[in-house]
Amino acid sequence: MSVSKAAYDDRDAVIVSAVRTPVGKGKANGALHDVLPADLLAHSLREVVGRVGVDPSQVDDVIAGAVSQVGDQSVNIARNALLGAGYPETVPGTTVDRQCGSSQQAISFAAQGVLAGSYDIVVAAGVESMSRVPMGSNVLPGSDPFGRGMADRYPDGLVPQGISAELIAAKWGLSRTELDEFSANSHEKAARATKEGLFDHELAPIAGLTQDEIIRPGTTVDTLAGLRPAFFNEAYSARFPQINWEITPGNSSPLSDGSAAVLITSGAAARKLGLRPLARIHTMTVVGSDPLYMLTGVIPATEKVLARAGLKLSDIDLFEVNEAFAPVVLAWARDTGADLAKTNVHGGAIAIGHPLGASGARIMTTMVNALEQRDGRFALQTMCEGGGMANATIIERL
Questions:
Q1: Contacting residues for 375 by C-beta, under 8 A, at least 6 apart
Q2: Which positions are catalytic residues (predicted)?
């Protein structure tokens, strides 16, 4: 059944274009390994304006997420990529790091700039080449990014994300079978969406890669059951005896390469340029959460963004919850009461991949398209983030 679509005001922040590269394996044999991150991002920046005929000289700013801002992803990759994409030298750019939610935060910053009247046209984007810039490579040997205050506050120490995922699985009583069933389903949905061409409109092929490289059609619970725990550690096992060691490479997101970009304008600019808004940024929020469990922020973020929007869970047609690890989404669904049948309908990061700094914009691109394909009105995106944070964003189809 068709839903009535909302009108938009001149000062609304609206999405008029959204694209992403196919996601490649974040390894040396991945299809995108030879593409420098600045060029990977430049590709999405070029496509997002080119597809709707916007002159890049009209862009007020480019805000891009990247997590490991070192080596090939250092020196303000947003600015380097926009120049590499052929944008005029007059266009500025800045790079943000909110861990896995970096480019979702870039979208929020872009929308906030439009709503405040500081921007008329802005690109929010993200990139991560985990094959060229390995996760954690921005932490130099002998360095201490946490400081003495953190050590005093958490004298027992914090833990890596994989251990946080194990703690969540234990606290919520999630079995290995449940985690693997969820993960196999993610691959099934992503494989079906690929086969049916549901990603075609959002993809910007690059380096000969025309489809997401990581999706494994035919993945089953039985095949996943043979994988060994990825994060087993005797010291952590002694510290946390409740852990059952259920997190494997099969129910975790894989190392990935990719970029994505979202073009956001004011309603007035969209009308002036004759652009068709796909959705408006309805409501945004960000929360902090327990840094030991780290990945549970999606639960309070969902509750907070719904309350701020004046909407109920039942008003949301589609959910996108980043599949950093299977227990994140399952714990979120259990606590919020959200319908998993409406969640990650084209698969998620376990199947598609999780190029850290790009994932927020990748998910938004997929969500905007899925909302239109399914003739829905509201969609909600949320992502857990390193250090114990989460962004949540609601969009409304126009």
A1: 1, 2, 3
A2: 100, 354, 384
Out of 43, 100, 187, 282, pick the active-site residue. 100
The neighbouring-strand residues paired with 279 are 15, 397
Kindly name the residue from 43, 282, 346, 384 that is annotated as catalytic.
Answer: 384
Structural domains present in the chain:
13-132+254-397 (3.40.47.10)
354 has catalytic annotation? yes
pLDDT higher than threshold 60 for residue 83:
yes
Report CA 361 to chain centroid distance, whole Å.
Answer: 6
**Signed CA dihedral, 369, 370, 373, 378: sign only:** negative
- Tell me the pairing of strands 121-129 and 61-65: parallel
Categorize the per-residue pLDDT at 58 as very low, low, confident or very high, splitting at 50, 70 and 90.
very high
Catalytic site includes residue 282: no
For residues 374 and 369, give the distance between their C-alpha atoms in angstroms, rounded to a whole number: 9
Pick the catalytic residue: 43, 282, 346, 354? 354
pLDDT for residue 279: 98
Q: Give the per-residue pLDDT at 3.
A: 55
Asked whether residue 63 carries a pLDDT value surpassing 50, the answer given is yes
Average pLDDT, whole number, for the chain? Answer: 97
Predicted confidence (pLDDT) at residue 43 exceeds the cutoff of 50: yes
CA max distance for the chain: 63
CA pair distance 298, 382, nearest whole angstrom: 6
CA distance 151 to 308: 34
Helix ranges, 337-394 (H) = 349-352, 359-373
**Which CA distances in Å does 110 have to 94, 124, 199?**
11, 6, 24
